[in-house]
């Protein structure tokens, strides 16, 4: 994919030197923003050392990236691990430098990087710098701030609009993770599809502090000139007060021949995932994490998808086509696009209770239980949201079952009107002999016809 990029940085209006650093390597398609911290210019040293060491580590493993792009047997998780190791290498280098120089003790930096490898993007992130994605006029924050303020907001201790009037107003720049303060650091990673027309903004907190609305981001990003866009962000922050150093890196992805098809494919997967109660509380980044563990499988008309009685370990979501559910050759129902089945397989390996086959050519999105368990174990917040969704689904089903049982009990408590119904029927038809064969036959017809309808409904 063709990439267009530009970067700008500025001291801001309240700092006399710039501790931000950025790096763009067009050959590696690597973009990094680092916001340093520490006295005696230590922050500038930390951020500079960070971007250089990250670049060196990525360059040393560029063959891995090239093999991934070429489609060789390189899993995406290997690229993510490589980026994590690159940040860890920078962390160790900064820490070791600080140990040797007394005036640099405690220095550290944020690190937010984007690597574009073919049609896939990879992110590694530590601190409170950010990376935004604008896609189809929507803005998505792909990084999460490792900051005191964000942690308080996440735990419900503070609301964003209350920060300036809270005891924490002087801790807006306090981070909970940084590269180099300790010898190692926990690194957030994410990978996702790169689509034609995507635009990215990597920035330090000196800029995103003033990005109060999505419209502010999209308006500046859509500037005709990419240079104008980066400089526009600098101006925006300075006009807002310029309380800190300001850095903006903008990356634009060009169009491609298969643009419409790929955009529709990714959008459909996310749309189907979002429509399922299990994932309804997930944000965009979390939906991407779930989408990353899915597989797509095509089925021809009449092809069996699952078989009653077999062990279950996959959940199915319908992207296109039509699926027939049946049990013991008895038809149950048809399922179409955005419907799903087999969700119990994610939590239970019990045998399938019904069979499913493709009624027409169908494309299904599949989630395997082991992959689902892995993401649940590694993503605490995501797992809490999914658990809450599961609880809600179970509560709804319990309420329905209770209502059905209550209705059954009410029905059982009604007086038996059979004799009266039969008597009234006999009176209306003029059959008054209770012992006659004709009357008995008529009685059976009168009573059994509605019962047959009920039995069909039960089937």
Provide the descriptors you would attach to this structure in a database record:
single chain, about 450 residues, alpha+beta, Phosphatase 2c, domain 1, six-stranded antiparallel beta sheet, 19 strands, disordered C terminus
Account of the 3D structure:
With 459 residues, the protein is α+β, with helices and mostly antiparallel strands. It has helices at 42-60, 62-69, 76-100, 148-154, 205-208, 214-221, 226-239, 259-275, 284-292, 369-378, 380-413, 418-429, 437-458, and strands at 3-10, 20-25, 30-37, 108-109, 111-117, 120-126, 130-135, 138-141, 188-193, 199-203, 246-253, 294-299, 304-306, 314-320, 323-327, 330-335, 340-341, 355-358, 362-368. The protein has 13 helices and 19 strands. The protein has three domains: 3-254, Phosphatase 2c, domain 1 (4-Layer Sandwich); 262-392, Jelly Rolls, CATH 2.60.120; 415-459, no CATH class. Strand 5 (111-117) and strand 6 (120-126) form a beta hairpin. The longest helix has 34 residues, at 380-413. Helix content is 41%, strand content 23%. The strands form four sheets. Strands 2, 3, 4, 5, 6 and 9 form a six-stranded antiparallel β-sheet that branches. Strands 1-11-10-7-8 form a five-stranded antiparallel β-sheet.
Helicity range: 40-55%
Low-confidence stretches: 417-459
C-alpha end-to-end distance: 55 Å
Describe the global form.
Answer: elongated
Number of domains: 3
CATH class of the largest domain: Alpha Beta
Query: What integer is the average pLDDT?
Result: 86
Secondary-structure arrangement, i.e. CATH architecture of the largest domain: 4-Layer Sandwich
Beta-strand proportion: 15-25%
**Helix count, DSSP H or I runs of 4 or more residues:** 13
Report the CATH topology name of the largest domain.
Phosphatase 2c, domain 1
Q: What's the Cα radius of gyration?
A: 31 Å
CATH 4th-level superfamily of the largest domain: PPM-type phosphatase domain
Count all strands and give the number: 19
Helix/strand-derived category reads alpha+beta
């Amino acid at each position: 994919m063709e990439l267009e990029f530009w970067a700008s940085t500025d001291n801001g209006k309240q700092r006399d030197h710039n501790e931000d650093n950025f790096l763009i390597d067009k050959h590696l398609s690597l973009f990094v923003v680092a916001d340093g911290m520490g006295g005696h210019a230590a922050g500038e040293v930390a951020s500079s050392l960070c971007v250089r060491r990250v670049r060196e580590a990525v360059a040393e493993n560029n063959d891995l990236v090239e093999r991934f792009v070429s489609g060789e047997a390189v899993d995406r998780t290997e690229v993510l691990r490589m980026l994590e190791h690159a940040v860890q290498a920078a962390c160790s280098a900064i820490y070791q430098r600080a140990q040797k120089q007394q005036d640099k003790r405690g220095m550290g930096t944020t690190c937010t990087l984007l690597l574009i490898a073919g049609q896939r993007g990879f992110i590694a992130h530590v601190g409170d710098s950010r990376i935004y994605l604008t896609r189809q006029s929507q803005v998505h924050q792909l990084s999460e701030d490792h900051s005191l303020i964000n942690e308080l907001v996440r735990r419900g201790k503070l609301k964003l609009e209350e920060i300036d009037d809270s005891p924490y107003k002087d801790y807006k720049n306090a981070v909970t993770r940084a590269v180099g303060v300790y010898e190692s650091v926990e690194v957030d990673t994410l990978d996702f599809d790169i689509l034609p027309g995507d635009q990215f903004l990597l920035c330090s907190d000196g800029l995103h502090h003033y990005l109060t609305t999505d419209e502010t981001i999209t308006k500046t990003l859509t500037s005709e000139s990419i240079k104008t866009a980066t400089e526009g962000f600098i101006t925006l922050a300075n006009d807002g007060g310029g309380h800190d150093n300001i850095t903006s890196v903008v990356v634009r992805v060009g169009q491609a021949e298969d643009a419409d098809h790929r955009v529709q494919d990714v959008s459909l997967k996310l749309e189907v995932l979002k429509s399922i109660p299990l994932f309804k509380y997930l944000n965009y980044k979390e939906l991407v994490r779930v989408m990353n563990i899915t597989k797509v499988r095509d089925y021809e008309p009449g092809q069996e998808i699952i078989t009653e009685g077999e062990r279950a370990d996959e959940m199915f979501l319908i992207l296109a086509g039509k699926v027939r559910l049946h049990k013991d050759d008895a038809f149950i129902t048809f399922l179409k696009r955005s419907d799903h089945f087999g969700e119990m397989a994610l939590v239970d390996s019990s045998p399938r209770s019904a069979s499913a086959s493709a009624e027409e050519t169908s494309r299904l999105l599949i989630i395997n239980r082991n992959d689902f368990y892995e993401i649940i174990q590694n993503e605490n917040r995501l797992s809490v949201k999914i658990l809450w969704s599961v609880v809600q689904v179970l509560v709804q089903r319990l309420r329905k079952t209770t209502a059905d049982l209550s209705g059954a009990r009410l029905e059982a408590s009604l007086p038996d009107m059979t004799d009266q119904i039969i008597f009234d029927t006999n009176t209306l038809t003029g059959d008054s002999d209770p012992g006659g064969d004709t009357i008995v036959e008529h009685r059976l017809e009168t009573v059994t016809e509605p019962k047959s309808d009920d039995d069909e409904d039960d089937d």
